[in-house]
Design brief:
Layout: H1 3-18, E1 33-38, H2 42-52, E2 65-70, H3 86-98, E3 103-106, H4 114-120, H5 123-127, E4 133-135, E5 143-147, E6 155-159, H6 160-164, E7 167-171, E8 173-177, E9 181-183, H7 185-188, H8 204-214, E10 219-228, E11 241-250, H9 253-261, H10 272-279, E12 291-294
Helix pairs in contact: 2-3, 8-10
């Protein structure tokens, strides 16, 4: 750095500090960019949301192994908003293949019978016949005891194919949850956890952040094509479902969750998981600092 440029930075910092600014802001990252796509063609709006961020090729490179982690936890049909919509999952998988992905793996650790969840969610049917896309049933022997060194969890069994993926894409459905109020990207990470997952309810906010800090989502795509407003996470009554026809995409999982919170008439500060993740440096929850691109 030359002398003139150095002096300019120092001068600017002094002015900032004198006006109540924070010198650290000089070196802060650019604000996160979040895309919001809307429409009744769910495949199209999913691709629009990705394209608004520069396309899936910003994340997926030739020869990559990609894991797409939807929410497939419940034996419910798509219209009940308990699981990620199959057309959203399919669209992301297709875009990954177009970008040159060698393999796309899709899986979840459901609460109901896995085969029924995969079938009745519509995801199995949507992905049928697509070459190099594998909808996997998770195998007990593939969980790996992983050091987390977290605030609450020091170690936990995590699925090895999530750990080894070149690209991890987190694709939750936006829905109500009885414990965390809302289930979004941060909560969706539970689907790669083995063991007694009920244990983490003792300190679920820190536990979820502990795992998310180790298995980082390169991209979070939130399915808000229809959202579950009550009786989550599994629902079962169409009266609890609101059709929004929206999809969010963002690199910053905290920003994505924070924005999706507004669909429920809530603020990011109302969701303890989001607040905890923000405090622990995982992302931006202040929506005034998030650049939103609408398509």
């Amino acid at each position: 750095m030359n002398r003139r440029k150095f002096l300019k930075i120092i001068t600017t910092s002094v002015v900032m500090m004198g006006s109540g600014g924070n010198i650290n802001r000089l070196f802060a990252d650019d604000p996160p960019v979040l895309s919001l796509a809307e429409g009744s063609d769910y495949a199209a709006i999913t691709k629009n949301a990705l394209n608004a961020l520069g396309g899936i090729q910003k994340f997926v490179k030739m020869g990559n192994v990609v894991v797409i982690k939807p929410n497939l936890g419940w034996d419910r049909k798509p219209e009940y908003a308990a699981n990620t919509h199959p057309l959203v999952v399919k669209a992301i998988a297709e875009e990954c293949l177009k970008a040159g992905a060698k393999k796309v793996k899709i899986f979840d650790n459901p609460c109901n019978d896995p085969r029924r969840c995969y079938e009745n969610s519509g995801v199995a049917g949507a992905l049928k016949g697509i070459k190099n896309v594998e909808l996997k049933h998770m195998e007990d022997e593939r969980y790996k005891n992983t050091k987390l060194n977290g605030v609450f969890l020091k170690e936990w069994e995590l699925y090895d194919e999530a750990l080894s993926a070149d690209v991890f894409i987190n694709v939750p459905v936006a829905k109500h949850h009885g414990l965390t109020r809302i289930s979004l990207g941060l909560k969706n990470i539970m689907g790669i956890m083995g063991g007694n997952r009920g244990y983490i309810h003792r300190s679920i906010e820190d536990a979820l952040v502990d795992v998310n800090k180790v298995v980082k989502s390169h991209l979070t795509v939130i399915d808000a094509t229809r959202i579950l407003l009550n009786h989550g996470p599994q629902g079962g009554n169409l009266k609890d479902v609101k059709v929004l026809n929206k999809v969010i995409a963002c690199r910053d999982i905290v920003a994505a969750d924070a924005y999706a919170t507004t669909f429920f008439g809530l603020n990011p500060v109302d969701i303890s998981t989001t607040v905890t993740a923000s405090k622990r440096g995982m992302g931006e929850m202040n929506l005034s600092r998030v650049k939103v691109i609408k398509t």
